[in-house]
Amino acid sequence: MAADSITATPETSRVRGLPGLQALGFNRAQSIAFLLLLAFLAIGPFFLYPVFLMKLLCFALFACAFNLLIGYVGLLSFGHAMFFGMGGYLAAHSAKVWGFTPELAILTGGAMGALLGVISGWLAIRRQGIYFAMITLALAQMVYFLCLQMRFTGGEDGIQGVPRGRLFGVFDLSADLSMYWLVAAVFLIGFLLINRVIHSPFGQVLTAIRENEPRAISLGYRADDYKMLAFVLSATLAGVAGGTKALVFGIATLTDVYWAMSGEVVLMTLLGGLGTVFGPAVGAAVIVTMQNYLAEFGAWVTVIQGGIFVICVVAFRAGIVGEIARWLRVRL
Amino acid sequence: MSQDRRTLLKTAAVASAVPVVGLPARARAQSTTLKIGVLNDQSGVYREISGPTSTACVRQAIVDSGIAAKGVNVEVVQADHQNKPDVGATIARQWIDRDGVDVIVDVPNSAVALAVNGIVREKNKAYFNSTGGTTELTGGQCSPNTIHWTYDTYMLAKSTGGAMVKTGGDSWFFITADYAFGHDLERNTTKFVQEAGGKVLGSVKHPLQSTDFSSYLLQAQQSRAKVIGLANAGTDTINSVKQAAEFGVTRRGTKIAVLLMFINDVHSLGLNAAQGLVCTESFYWDLNDRTRAFTKRVLPSLGGNYPAMSHAGCYASVLHYLKAVADMGAAAAKASGADAVARMKAMPTDDDCFGQGSIRADGRKLHPAFLFEVKTPAESKGPWDYYKLLQTTSAEDAWRPLSEGGCSLIRT
């Protein structure tokens, strides 16, 4: 589906990118979309509630990290909540108990994601398709029950009252707006890193493995090593997203390691557009906005959400961004 | 703060325009609007015990307080936190920062309850938790802005464990959910059972969200304990109660003590499955004339649901808050949530749901706890006629002593 549009688009489209942004691997349409994204990040907090925007960006980074795996390697992980949630727990614990500065706490979250990624990837990467999804789900449920039992996570109460602290020990982050700029920076770095990976030779090999793994192997690529690296990278960024979110809200709870969260990130990516650069972020924005702004409708939240999903599935088969890209005949 | 300055400016403007002494003060009183946010679960597992019924009870409290006649306008907003702490935290922050909400009420789910607790303290507003059960709210994370109204896990364990032994249930076996909540409940209840002279014959732990309880129930029956204590919550409780009914546990004379249950759970289980269960609530609609009068007033707006103790807590806490507001002035209550809560603690409480009571320094509301047994279908005379009273634990005995909570407000 979305795969055809990516491989069918000629390489020359990248050459026509806006100067300066070419180096990041963007084509012209992507450059424009990226500039719009930058503008949104810059003026967003003055129009929308900053805490809501920060949450949106954390989930957007999470969905982008997930998309790296499913969109470009073709691996459907159903256990990404473990990286997101454990990243959050470790960041919260390190900031609250060990007194880490926020940037170190976020990196600790990322390191936790990487560590879990290595362990679970080593086990899961040997299988494909539904087996891969089931192994990751099983591992994630193990992590969930560990979090439920371990002392440091606070069980069902979660870790509460995590201080945002001072960035580099200097800049106070307790004001929402200053925290916002940190979150926006983390998101941008993660987003550009993923984009760079996708457009690197390494990313091209990943796409080749997705399209035809036996052929990639026969060409001499060690497919498992490539998949493993992509998996760990995705897990790390998911951990970073989880850690950032824990600092924004000052809490880390079981919700983020629960399997429903793994499902939610799949939904975000599908809704936004599988295998598109901007799709996951858009999908995350739609879901988070619905969760927040439909809350006042009370019991109708889930009904309205269901209705919107049905409309999206019927009207946007390739996801919102995927469908827009098809209309405009560009790659987004 | 900015609100304050604005009212001040408005007052100054009115004062300069109308040179009549006394009028500015009245104008200010009339312009004050208080906003109460009901934050709870409106679509998930806690819908029946919180949900729209809580909002209706808060509205009833505003009507009953007669605060509108005193020139204070009170608005109610509500939202569904979907049992997600981040959704709850975002809504709570947005309500306070953007929408000028002064009070947040209800909040089931202990993770969300504690997250909101931190936010309200940071922003100096007021927070009355009714449906959350965690003792942390008046313990390690207690706050000068928070009142924990209706119940907590300590009180449930004390009432169910201690009072049950007095009615003859002196040997226990626990079926416990295998995580901190279940462990705490079992440990506390065990302590009270033993203090009252009973003994615990054993316990078995089940993973969270089990579907098959048959092996645990058989183990419990083989122990020949007089009481099987269910130290779990939500769907686990519902599933274990249903399966116990299928095994005919209560019909053979064994009592099942459910440590966390509301009347709405009894209603959805049906009396056939729930008959003979023993549980603790701090309010029952058919308890006395005052509770019946309250229920009669509020019932038309509940859409068929009946109020549980959690709903009564929303009503009573808001009613008491509005009394404090009438006493100290709406502007002062709006300016500082901590001041409003301090005034509430200084005043004795009196309402139709819980009768007379008081609020302790750590934010714990004190009232009696009632041990109920669920009636058999033959005993039940009408709709929602579900409970008969077994024992009452007095307000002095039901709650965790101040010294054991570790609340930092006490030492200062």
TrEMBL record, chain A:
Origin: domain of life: Bacteria
InterPro entries recorded: ABC_transp_permease, LivM-like
Alphabetically ordered keywords of this record: Cell membrane, Membrane, Transmembrane, Transmembrane helix
Annotated compartments: Cell membrane
Membrane-topology annotation of the record: Multi-pass membrane protein
TM spans (from-to): 29-49, 56-84, 104-123, 130-152, 177-194, 228-253, 265-290, 297-320
The keyword Repeat is annotated on this UniProt entry: no
Matching CDD domains: TM_PBP1_LivM_like (cd06581)
The protein's name: Branched-chain amino acid ABC transporter permease
Organism in which the protein naturally occurs: Teichococcus aerophilus
Lineage: Bacteria, Pseudomonadati, Pseudomonadota, Alphaproteobacteria, Acetobacterales
From TrEMBL, chain B:
Sequence similarity: Belongs to the leucine-binding protein family.
Record protein name field: ABC transporter substrate-binding protein
Gene3D superfamilies in alphabetical order: 3.40.50.2300
Pfam families: Peripla_BP_6 (PF13458)
PANTHER family: LEUCINE-SPECIFIC-BINDING PROTEIN, PERIPLASMIC BINDING PROTEIN OF ABC TRANSPORTER FOR NATURAL AMINO ACIDS
Protein's organism: Teichococcus aerophilus
Source lineage: Bacteria, Pseudomonadati, Pseudomonadota, Alphaproteobacteria, Acetobacterales
Stored InterPro entries: BCAA_transport, Leu-bd, Peripla_BP_I, TAT_signal
Keywords per UniProt: Amino-acid transport, Signal, Transport
Ranges for domain Leucine-binding protein: 33-375
Listed CDD domains: PBP1_SBP-like
